[in-house]
Amino acid sequence: MYRLLKLSGTPLRKHPRVSFGNFTENGDGVTEKTCMLCKQLNNFSSVGLRNHSTIINPNISLKKVRKRKQTVKKYAELLVVKEKVTDKSSSQHKASIQKLTSSDLKLLASTSLNLSELYKLKELSKSTIIIEQHTYNNLSVIENMPNPGNSAHIDDFTISDFKEENVVVYSIPSNVLSKVNESFTVNDTDTANELPEEGSIASEADLDLGIHSLNTFQPEAGDEQISEVEVKEANEKDVKTPLNQKYKVEIATKTLAAYIERQVEKEANSLNSIKNINVYKALLKAFAHKGDLDKIKEILKIMEEENVELNLQCYVAIFECLGRVNIKNNHLKDIRIFAKNAFHKGITFDKMMNEGSFLNNEREIVLQAMKSCDPSYVPKYDPPRVIYNNTLVNHLNNPEQQMPANIESNGDSMIFNSTEMRELVNRQIEMEKEGYVTVKSIEARDNPSEEILKYRGILDDHYKMWEETALAAFNRDLTALIAQKNVLNLEPYMRCIPVQDYVAIIIDEAKKLAQGSETYSPTVNMLYKDMGTKVYARYKILRKQKTGVLNKIMKVHNKYCEEYATNHSDLDVLPSEDVKINTRQRWQWLEHSTHSKGATLNMDHREWVPTTLQFIGKFMYHIVMHDLKIDVNAMKINNNNKNYLPAFYTIFRTQGRIVKEEVKPHPVLSKLYRASVPDTLTFPTYELPMVCPPVPWIATHTGGYLVSPCDVIRLPSQAILQKRRLARAGSQQLYPSLDALNQLAAVPWKVNKRILDVILEVFNSGGSASLDVPQPSSSLPPPSTPTSDMEKSEKYHLFRQKLQYKRKKAEMYSLWCDCLYRLSLANHFRDEIFWLPHNMDFRGRVYPIPPHLNHLGSDLARSMLVFAESRPLGPNGLDWLKLHLINLTGLKKRDPLSERQFANEIMDLILDSADNPLTGKRWWVDSDEPWQTLACCMEIANVGRDSSGAYSVNLTQSEVPQDVYSAVVALVEKQRAKDAESGLQIAKVLEGFVKRKVIKQTVMTTVYGVTRFGARLQIARQLKDIDDFPKESVWPASSYLTGCTFDSLRSMFTSTREIQDWFTECARLISAVGCKHVEWVTPLGLPIVQPYFRYKQLKTPNDNFPMDKYEKPNVMKQKNAFPPNFIHSLDSSHMMLTSLHCERAGITFVSVHDCYWTHPSTVHIMNKICREQFVALHSQPILEDLSLFLADKYSYDECDFTGDGSVQDLTKKKLNRVLRQLPKTGDFDIRQVLNSVYFFS
């Protein structure tokens, strides 16, 4: 083992390559052939052993030599042939027989010896020499090694350096030799014609090389099956005897041919041909950048052998290489040949220049090669494809979109100007290049105590120590990684960014772990992948800088922001004209204007696989876990002794049948971090709003932040199917969905400073449960401690309370931290305008990318943000504002519109709430949405002083608004009263507690496929929040109400239930019978695939990252999720249609799923658009189109049936029948929505 370890650290490049002809004399006086590597390996055996012992007496450590009893060997005879060639004559003698080990027989099985060679080996055994085999492992590397598939190459292979002996030992079974010896008599003249003449080279026929076809089965000997053998003639001394030159040539050629044969057969049996064009494209790109035309031609030859067709990007790389090496047209012939081949495949010069991916100055180099072939060539760049191809939005196309926009400046607007925009773009790019932003915490104190300052100093000292330790540890582990001799060494991934960036990521991760929860933390696999993703994100930013992509983005985005500032002038009460060119189309035309020079925005980058990200994270987490230390005596008073222990450790948490490994900070580190009360918080740039307008999404890989990576669709790593569907769909099919994201991202925001100040006051005062401001975990009173005189049941009750206390405390701390981040960021941006880039989930639901500061959240989160661009209220704006206020309070939800002028009657309370939110009458506190109510009160106060089921869900006309939740409550209460009269105890307990709030969530999520178990948990949660309800009856009461609610809904919405059942049955049969994932395409063209599959048992580390296209779908999740996911995709389609038409109308629009926002003066415009697009969407044959899509994709053909009446045949026929059997729908006229008063209220 020591020899192996010693060898692994020996640099092979120090030893020069030596041919077989270099011989040395060993210690026994026998000349032998060796190479420098063999000598180095053999010398390791003389290394002295190092004995480790705690015993001082050296005699005890001496190892006693144990004699091993010799056993009789059943097999092995040695055949050695000695050849002596004189004037065309030779002689052979029968060899003496000697027993060998069984391992020597394996060598015979892996070679091709004929009888002639066996006799030659027998003759050699009469020579009194010491013979040492030179194994395959000790062969020197030989340049221009012949191809074993071509026998002519063997003839050309000569070894002219042999001047001494060369002996090879073979071992064969004794029974074979005995038969050979009995059957043949060897004479001197028998082999006269078998050996080559003196001075000639042995041919393949003479040597019987035995090179077989790779397709024939042949047992393969491993390296460990070939061993060195030393044989001595009995009772004779070692004698040095030279060997004949011809024999050396024969044996050497034989050995070499067998080695080549073995290597070729081994590779042919173990490796598959590479057919992936991306592999060759990457190689072509790399060698083209170096201008290595010879390597390019080698790769092309391999591609031709593997029948891999060249694509457009391959030809771009070829012409790049030719452009670099074509000096004075010395490669003009090659350029013309490749141009002819490209044209033959339909790849023209113009197509390469339009669709190719270029970095830095590659476009100019390729163009130079093209002009050398055709001096008159001038590239013609195609205009971008900017129009829609969808029946729902085709009417938005117009001729003005087919040409660049001519923007005439109307003067700088009130909040934007071109100069400020350029400064904001530069600031944003610097933030993203830095990677992190540090903001001041709202918890920061103006005058921290001496104790806090002391703890901060201790923590800072640890951070500095960690940086030094992490730097040294990273270099140490990287050196060890470089020394590894793996086939695929991942060392390049650990060199892709500067070392200081790795260290910064490690320290940032350690700081984040120090803030972790006591009851929950992500698993180590999640942490590994997250850290690897951070490295990958940093790499992509640096790559964009290095390849010139960043310069192109800056150039285009500066022009885009200038146009953005020009188009956003002061807003009037109503928009004056339609906006006919959207943000995506402006960006595409600006990019097209710079298309002829510089890099392309698409880098043609291959994403790092999850296994690589996992490796990077694991490599770095090894440093976090084993090298970062914490002084456990740091918080002890007057203790100068330092005791460093690991700052982090792992625990194993059981979740059902799964045991998960998690990382926890040392208790002293957690305590030190909290005691230091940090005054700053650090966030990654991609988690913050942007200080300039985002890049519009023009494809799935371009949009969002300027250089920070972000995905247009939030997909798990295993969701490969939907990624492929998106790639095949093309950008034009996705334009409606992308444009909706762009419209939402183009809305500027600012912080409502008055609301923020009130929230900060409540938060710093300890929070408020009634106002949904999280309280610190320290405010939770601890449970009482058990005493010795308590009974067992009382102690058990206290034990349960203690568990609930820990769980509640952890939950409070998590909510408190979330609010701390949100408020700190809002305070950081309080005087700035910012933008929120958007993306969507796999169903098409839209979300802001920044997770902490956005309008998608609780009542508190929504109240803090307002539009940065304001509009005058106009004649009806104040009425809409008052109506919105009453809706927020929830006081008049079931009252008709005529009675909702309640705001005028309580104007004094509204003004008091605005002027004295915390010290006045606090009317706003009792609202359903208190913080939004307060914000609305402040708006009304400012303006006031300055001015002084279709029926159940309000699809039809009605005098009063219909509330489906109240209707279900009435049915449930009716059933409860009936059961109570029958004597059901739980029905009696629920008297007076069946309220709208209790069952609202269950009713709302029923259409989304909520199960009975999930509904039971929802109702139980609501009953627990009722103080007067007996806690011991929560579980049976929730079970009873769940059944009543489901029965009531089934009686109210019969057609809806039938449609939902059809969805469920389709998904069940598709996933169970067809064993495929359910997928569909939304009316706006967004392909959707449900990524639910059954996780198999992990066998290898790579199994941590399965891919859905190779896994069996999870039938239960597929069928339960199909109805809600399909409904979500329709809701998202309606929102996107509303967004696109509001943008065309020139009004501001923002949504939180199905909650739409705009200025009060434009509510009536959005109201009209919302209704019209709802009618347009649902006038489409949605169910019919879905049925046709599913039947076309999942149905079985007639050839798939066996016709034997088997269960398999019957289930396939059932699948075909169900997919085409549409459920019955009602006769409701969808156009009645246009006249419904409360459809939008």
Describe the structure.
With 1241 residues, the protein is mainly α. Helices cover 47% and strands 7% of the residues. The protein has 41 helices and 24 strands. Strands 15-18-19 form a 3-stranded mixed beta sheet. A 3-stranded antiparallel beta sheet has the order 17-16-20. Helix 12 (332-344) packs across helix 14. The two termini are 80 Å apart. Residues 1-56, 73-115, 117-122, 124-243, 258-271 and 945-954 have low confidence and may be disordered.
Topology:
Elements lengths: L1 H7 L14 E3 L5 E3 L2 H8 L33 E2 L26 H5 L5 H10 L6 E2 L18 H6 L14 E2 L1 H10 L20 H4 L22 E2 L13 H26 L6 H14 L2 H13 L6 H14 L6 H13 L4 H7 L6 H12 L44 H17 L1 E5 L9 H34 L15 H16 L9 H23 L2 H19 L15 H11 L16 H17 L2 E3 L12 E3 L1 E8 L2 E8 L1 H10 L3 E5 L10 E5 L2 E3 L8 E2 L5 H10 L1 H15 L2 E4 L1 H12 L27 H37 L5 E2 L2 E4 L4 E3 L10 H5 L1 E3 L9 H13 L12 H4 L1 H9 L14 H18 L16 H18 L3 H5 L6 H11 L5 H13 L9 H19 L1 H19 L6 E3 L5 E3 L25 H31 L4 E3 L2 E3 L5 H16 L3 H13 L12 H14 L21
Parallel strand pairs: 15-18
Antiparallel strand pairs: 1-2, 3-5, 4-6, 7-12, 8-9, 10-11, 13-14, 16-17, 16-20, 18-19, 21-22, 23-24
Helix pairs in contact: 9-10, 9-11, 11-12, 11-14, 12-14, 15-19, 16-17, 16-21, 16-22, 17-18, 17-21, 18-21, 19-20, 24-38, 28-31, 30-31, 32-34, 32-36, 34-35, 34-36, 35-36, 37-38, 37-41, 38-39, 40-41
